[in-house]
Amino acid sequence: MADKHNNVNHIETDVLVVGGGAAGMFAAISAARNGANVLLIDKNVVGRGGATIMAQMTCASALGEEEPDSPDQHLIDTLEAGRGLCNENLSALLCENSPKRIRELEDWKVQWVRQENGKIRQVIAPGHSRMRCVYVDFLRTGAAIAAALRNQISRNDAIRKLSNVSLTDLVTHDGEILGAVGFEVSTATPVTIQSSAVILCLGGMTKMFRRTTAPNNIAGEGLGLALRAGAKIVDIEFLQFYPNGHMAPRLVGLDPTTWEPTRVKLGGRLLNGRGEEFLNNYGETSGEKYDTARDTLTHAMYKEVKSGRGSPHGGVFLSFQHIQQTALKNALGPALEILHRNNIDLTKRPVEVYPIAHYQMGGIEVNTDMETGVPGLYAAGEIAGGANGANRLSGNALPEAMVFGERAGEAATKFTAKRSKRRWNKTSTRPHVELIKGVLGKDVGEGYSPASLYGDLKELMWTKVGMFRNEKDLSEANTKIRAMRLNELQNLVVPSEKIHNMSLVEWFELRSGLLAAEALTLAALNRRESRGAHQRDDFPDTLNNYQLSQKIMFENGELVSNLMEAPT
Amino acid sequence: MIDTKNTPPDHLKSTRLRIWRGTSREEGGHQEFEITFEDGETVLDGLTALRRDSVPDLAVRFSCFNANVCKECTMLIDGEVQYACIAKLHTGEMQIDPLPNRPLLRDLITDTLSNKEKI
C-alpha cells in the first residue's frame, strides 16, 4: 500500500476516518462492520488523542434503569437546553440511539457503575429532568470508553490505524471528495490518501482559548478543512464555557473539569469571595442545588467577579467543607490521593473555580446520515454542529460522539459502495504536497514561531471572544485574526528539522484553525442578541427574530454568513 | 464556618533545566535553560513555556494536559520515568532526558508506537 516513490507515501482505502476519539473509533468500527476497508488516523495516538479520553463525567442515556425515562423525554430536555436552535432531527438521533451505544459498550466490557440491585446506576445532571447519566468510577468514563474502543479496533483486520499523521488538506474534484493529504509527524513525509469517503472526527476549537479543558490536539483545523472543501459550518458562535473549571491552587494529575461530577455526587457549595452563596441572586432558588444549567452558572460567576466579589485568583469558591470525609472518599476514590499530592484538603479549605472553554456546540453542518453536502465528506462528534443548538446538556457529548460516529461509518460505507472508480491522479494532490514541503524550513528571518502566534491567539480569543462579548472586542479580534491568517502565518519561521517538528504541526493547525477562529468571531459579531452560550453585553436579550441557525461558508477566499444582515 | 482565605499567587521561583537535545544518543547532549515558575507548576508547563517563548524547535509531545491519560509525555525526569504533565518543577537544577529504553527520535521524544501504527 505504501509507496515511497518521490518521498511521498501513498495509501488507498475505502473510508478514511480522521481523529481517534470516540467518534472516530466508532466510525471506523461501524464502517468496517458494514464492509469497508478503513484507515483511521490521528495526529497524536489513535485512541489516546482527542477529548474522549479526558472526559471524566457522564453519558446521558435514557436507559430507564434508575427511574422511568424515555428518549422522547431526553429529547425534550436537550431541546430546552438548546434555546430554540437545535437541529431536532440530529438531537432526536442522539437521544434515540444513545441507549444502543451504551449497551454495546457494556458488551465490550465497559464497567458502568451499578446499583445494589445490579441495574446500571444513573444520576441526575444539570438540565436533565430524570436520573439519566451513566458513568465509570472513578472519574474515568471517557478513559474506559476509549480503552474498550481501542480494544475493538486492534482486533479488527479491516481497520488500519496510523498514529502521528497530521491532515493538511482534503482533496476534491468537481466539488467531490477524492481523498486527503497530510504528513507523518515523525518524519515530515507527505502522505496522500485516496479514499471514496472521508469522515472528519477532529473535535472542536477550544484549544484556541487560554483557559481550556481541551487536549493539545483539538485545534479547530477540521472546521477549516471542511470550509475550504466547500462544507458549511453552523452555530459556530456557540462555545460552552464549563462553569466549575479548576483555577487554584495549582492542580495537576486531574483534569480541570473534576469538580462538576464531584459536585453532582456530593452537592458542593458555590460561594463568592466573601463566603456568601450567590446563585440565588441570579434567579436560582438555592446555591446548594445542583440543577443550574451551565450557561446560567457561568453568567453568575462572571458577574460576581466583575462586581468585585471574586476569590483571590479571580474566580469563586467551591466548598466541600460541609461534606464528611467518608463521603468524600466514596465519591472521589483515588482522586482524593491526587488532591493530597497537590496540597488540597477539601475538608479544610475550598478550591477556586472559574469558567473554562470546554465544548463547541456549533460545527460542520450535517444531516442525520452525517453527510456534509460535499459528496463523500462526513463529520461526526463535537465537530458536527446542530444537535446541541445554543447550549449543550451535561452528558450529551459522549453519546453524540458515539451515535454520530456509528451513523457516519455506516453511511460513508454505503456511499463508497455506490461510487465508481474515482478520478484520482497525482496532479490533484501536487499543490497540497508542495505546500507541506514549502512550509518545512520556511525561514523569513523574523524569528516568530507558530508556538508564539498560538500564545497570542489564545490570549486574544480568551479576552475578546470569551464568555461575554461585545461589538468592539469582537471587531478587534476579527481584524487581528484575519491579519494572522492572511499575513502573519506567512511570516512564521518553521525549522527544517524533519523529525517531530512541532512547528510544522502547529503551522498547519493554525492555517486551518485561524479560518475557524475567524468564522467564530464573525458569527459572534453577526448574532446581535444573547442566547445560550453566546452572551453579548451590548445585546443582552434573546430575540425571536434570531431564533435561527447561522450558516457560514468560505467562498472565493471570503467567509460569508446568512446573518450578515439582521433577520426580520 | 467557611475559610475563604486562600494562598495568594506564589512568588516566582527559578530553576535550571538540563534538557537532552539531539537525534542520537551518541551525538546529542544537554542544553541548559533558566526558567521561572510558580509553585505547583509542572515540567510540561516549563517545557511548553520554553517552546512558546524561546526554544520553538524543542521536540516534546503531549495531547491531554495535566490529566495523565494520553501517556505521551513520559520521559526521564531527574533520572526517574515520569509524566512531564504531572511532575512538579523544583528549584535548583532538574535533568530532563528521553526514555532510556526506547529508540530516540529527537530531543525528548522516543518511539513508543507499535510498527502497525506507523506508515
Number of domains of chain B: 1
Mean pLDDT of chain A: 93
Outline the biggest β-sheet of chain B: 5 strands, mixed
Helix proportion of residues of chain B, in percent? Answer: under 10%
Largest two-chain interface: A-B, 64 and 46 residues
Order of strands side by side in the largest beta sheet of chain B? 2-1-5-3-4
Which geometry of chain B do the CA atoms define? globular
* Continuous helix count of chain A: 14
Q: What percentage of amino acids of chain B are in beta strands?
A: 25-35%
Q: How confident overall, as mean pLDDT of chain B?
A: 90
CATH architectural group of chain B: Roll
Give the class of chain B from helix and strand content and strand pairing. mainly beta
Q: What is the strand tally of chain A?
A: 20
Rg of chain A is 23 Å
User: What is the straight-line distance between the termini of chain B?
Assistant: 60 Å
**Element order, helices and strands of chain B?**
EEHEEEEE
InterPro entries (chain B): 2Fe-2S_ferredoxin-like_sf (IPR036010), Beta-grasp_dom_sf (IPR012675), SDH/FRD_Iron-Sulfur (IPR050573), Succ_DH/fum_Rdtase_N (IPR025192)
Protein name (chain B): Succinate dehydogenase/fumarate reductase N-terminal domain-containing protein
Domain Succinate dehydogenase/fumarate reductase N-terminal (chain B): 17-112
GO molecular function, one term (chain B): iron-sulfur cluster binding
Topology:
The complex is a heterodimer of chains A (568) and B (119).
Chain A: E1 9-18, H1 22-33, E2 38-41, E3 59-60, H2 71-81, H3 88-107, E4 133-134, H4 141-154, E5 159-162, E6 165-173, E7 176-184, E8 189-200, H5 221-229, E9 233-234, E10 239-242, E11 246-248, H6 259-266, E12 269-271, H7 294-306, E13 316-319, H8 325-332, H9 334-341, E14 351-353, E15 356-360, E16 363-365, E17 377-379, E18 384-385, H10 397-418, H11 426-439, H12 450-464, H13 471-486, H14 502-526, E19 551-555, E20 558-561
Parallel strand pairs in A: 1-2, 1-8, 2-5, 8-17, 16-18
Antiparallel strand pairs in A: 3-4, 6-7, 7-8, 9-16, 9-19, 10-15, 11-14, 12-13, 13-14, 19-20
Helix pairs in contact in A: 1-4, 1-10, 2-3, 3-10, 5-14, 12-13, 12-14, 13-14
Chain B: E1 13-21, E2 29-37, H1 43-53, E3 74-77, E4 80-83, E5 92-97, E6 104-106, E7 109-110
Parallel strand pairs in B: 1-5
Antiparallel strand pairs in B: 1-2, 3-4, 3-5, 6-7
